[in-house]
Amino acid sequence: MSATASVRDAPVAREEARLPPWWPLAALVVLAAALRLSTLDLQSFWYDEAFTPVHVLHRSLWATLRAVSHTENSPPLWYVIAWADARVLGTGEVALRLPSALAGVATVPVVWAIGRELTGRRAALVAGGLVAVNPLFVWYSQEARVYSLFALTVALAMLCLVRAEREPTPARMAWFALSGALALLTHYFAVFLLIPMVIWLAWGLPRRTRAARRATLPAIGALALVGLALLPLVSTQGGHGTQWIGRWALSSRLQAIPQYYLTGNSGAPLGHGVELLLALPVLAGVGFGLWRLLERPPRPGDLREAQEQRAVALTLFIAAGGILIPIVLVAFGADYLAPRNLLGAMVPVTVLIAILLASPRAGRVGMALAATIAAGFLVISVDVALSPRLQRGNWRGVARALGKGGPGRVITTVELGAAPLEYYLPPLHNLPRGSSVAVREVDETGYSPLRASAGRPPAAGFHLLERLDIDGLVVYRFVSPLVRSVSEAALRGHVITLAHPEVLAPGGSHVSTRQAQASGRR
Fold it and tell me: Residue ranges per domain, the chain?
């Protein structure tokens, strides 16, 4: 009798020992949080990040919004969040990057939900896993800028679209409109992803009931109103700070799009061999999944196969809009095609890859390829955390090497170094054009390729004290035994890097405009 009871109780014990069904998602969220939060302060701010606390964030929200309209080229939502974050936590690296990190972690369960809604649990697992470890998503989850929030809001809009299309109630359409509006208020490139979403909804309107049409049209109208409301801000901003995009060859930018997705924002030093190693399983998985999915039409009555094909069509349509529309606009003179502006489009791209790999038709081959891709992504994400050559320029290290200094020093740098040095060595300010400054030390900072004049004294009476290499950033320190007056023009012309020069002087420096003018007349 005791033995019979033990046999009867064994299945119950095994059932209680099983892990809950949500544990894979929880594990992915923990992994995503570990990759993003554990090294949040590892890298120093680069130019765009440092520009925000130095020039955009002010004590007043109104002053911050005015700065956004005159110095930035993005909608205001992220800056409002950054302003509130800075009021509570300050403007340190961890504080300003924390909203992006949390948005990056939150993107994982949202993408999981998209995969589950479209085809099921296998696609959810692959999609969530790829987003959790992809080096591009990890990189921008650790950047104090708009991009991680952009990816999250696009993912939310896509999730709400899928749910609203399946059940077009007023509430679900309202959620789609709200999430789409948040995406528009985060990044202007959201419009290229919302356009195919709206077309997808509108295409099915004739087949829907009158109640469904009454719920859909106001949602589309609300998105249109938000877009129109942003036009005055777009006009005021006028493409601030986007000139560098046009100077980057279009062919190189197009090549960088898949490179960014495979190896992240800093993957170029890894070389094409690493890119190829990652591209092969991705291309093999996509090709194999498409072949198995399209080799024969869905069998009559097989809803799963029809659902998979519809999911592939939807994600491909959204991804194509998010990538191809900006490329086409380049031909019409609207060239804002930077690979990082396509981060939102990488959400449907990732979901598309996950659906194809996780399809039952792809079988174990698809899941093996998915595991291979995820492992490659994870290795690169960890490598970025361990290798300074793959990280942002170490301007914090440069500032530490230079020390606080005083009014007897001037620093020359390039545009990408100006805001970080102003952040790490306050109070620095740009030396006025046509002025001169009295100094005993000139510090020249930059990176390769260096000018032929690098290492030569910037003016008579100065000699080289030391040359430093700080994780690829170069510093030349020149000193003089006497205080000497050096013109801003001479300093600007002696910047060591072949890039736009900046001259920074500490507060309290003796700056003279008349002296420089007199020197120019002589």
Answer: 21-390, 395-521
